[in-house]
Amino acid sequence: MDSGGHLHGKPTLRRVAVKSDNRIREQEQENWEELEPVTPAGRLFNQPSLNCYIHVIVGFKTQMDVEAIKTGLETTLIKHKRFSSIVKEDKRGVLKWLPVDVNIDDHVILPFIDPADSCNRDFVKNYTAKLATAPPLHPSRPLWQIHLLRVRSEEAASSLVMRVHHSLGDGVSLMSLLLACTRKASDSQSLPTIPRQTSTRPSNGRGRLTALFFIMALYNLFLVILYTTVDIIHFLATIVWFKDSKTPIKGYPGVESSPKQIEHATLSLEDFKIVKTAVNGTVNDVMLGMTTAGILRYLEREYEAKAEGISKSEKRNIGDKQSLPSNLRVRSAILVNTRPAPGLHDLADMMKSGKEARWGNNLGYLILPLLMVKQQNPLDYVRTATGMTRKKKLSLEGPFTYASGKLLMKLAGVKSITIHFQSYMERVVLVIAAASEVIRDPKQLCIDCVDAFDRMKQAAIASHQS
């Protein structure tokens, strides 16, 4: 097990020397034709200019049992083909997934943590932020690591940080795989139960209803063609010349490799449901609305501070006066899954017996404008988001951008803020990863988003009572 470097205050990571040894069973692979080729998205993520990693933090209520975790990984995760293979070129230059022998100690990292950091509640966030810009993993081993941090954070007694190269799979696949590696607390042999959304179809047995549904289907087809055409034109214009306004949050070429700062907040899923019911929207609409309102307030503060020449410590005391330039163009790229998530039982069977299951990178992305216009009613941010997302749901922009391949790099490369929402156990965790060279106060940005959500919740409650 690699002990890593000495960590004090902000963690320092070093490149691990790796020998290209006989772990690779290249000599044993006589028929390269039988090996699975790397998908177009996988080849994209393997390019040095992108080299994208996914980082996952898992908190534990108690101090973790290192040996138990290693044993569990040996019986589950490393039996998955992607987590026990490396990418190699065959004689024709085609990238293939080559199975290798996996030594669990090469992938489970237990770094030394200075006792002085045992009380640092931000240590896990700082460590993960440092991993985000750490050197790439060595290609002679499967591209994943698990870092075990036996230090208390804000919400956990110990934490596990997983670093996975994006070529191994997308976020939906990895979340399903993570759940498939767990078992119920009440039954150590049973997979966790995941609620499934059911839909009901109205009966269309009568001729009148059949005709109505046919007309509606034609109308929806027209909308699909219209919205898809508009979105594709917008997408291509973005690639060529249509750029965002220069603002204090806009990134620059190479910003993806700059130091990161991670901030998070935990919210109630029930509160999200209160807001989405008030506007007849979805939970995702609420997330987009609160993000828009939070970024707007952060930009207001930045422009006010710039105009008044005050120090950063004084910014938080500025009032709510309007100070944004007019007609600001700020847009977000939202990743969407283009196929159903793999089932837990399918993945469990895959790791147990090698059966096939849905897996890979099936990602598209949507370009959504964040309207930098201050609303008097906090719920109007969500209503605006609902109107945009309803159109996007009828558009084929996601599948188009998935098929566009290398065009993803044009958009994915330059971003200074990444915002994630993860819902679990009736909670929603907002996570902001920001380039600290561009976003001078990521913590304040997180606070602004939470404050915006609180105002939305209070407005939703007030509208219900009235």
Helices and strands in order, then pairings?
Layout: H1 40-45, E1 53-60, H2 66-75, E2 85-89, E3 95-99, E4 108-109, H3 123-131, E5 144-149, E6 158-165, H4 171-180, H5 207-240, E7 260-268, H6 269-279, H7 283-308, E8 331-337, H8 344-353, E9 363-369, H9 379-393, H10 397-403, H11 407-412, E10 417-424, E11 427-435, H12 442-465
Parallel strand pairs: 4-5
Antiparallel strand pairs: 1-6, 2-3, 5-6, 7-11, 8-9, 10-11
Helix pairs in contact: 4-8, 6-7, 6-9, 6-12, 7-9, 7-12
Describe this entry's structure for a reader.
- It is a single chain.
- Helices cover 36% and strands 16% of the residues.
- The protein is α+β, with helices and mostly antiparallel strands and 466 residues long.
- α6 packs across α7 and α6 crosses α9.
Strand order of the largest sheet: 1-6-5-4
Question: Helix count?
Answer: 12
User: What proportion of the residues is helical, as a percent range?
Assistant: 25-40%
Kindly provide the radius of gyration, computed on alpha-carbon positions and rounded to a whole number of angstroms.
24 Å
The chain-level mean pLDDT equals: 81
In brief, what are we looking at here?
By secondary structure, the chain is α+β, with helices and mostly antiparallel strands. Helices cover 36% and strands 16% of the residues. A 4-stranded mixed beta sheet has the order 1-6-5-4, covered by helices on one side. Strands 7-11-10 form a 3-stranded antiparallel beta sheet, sandwiched between helices. It has a two-stranded antiparallel ribbon with strand order 2-3.
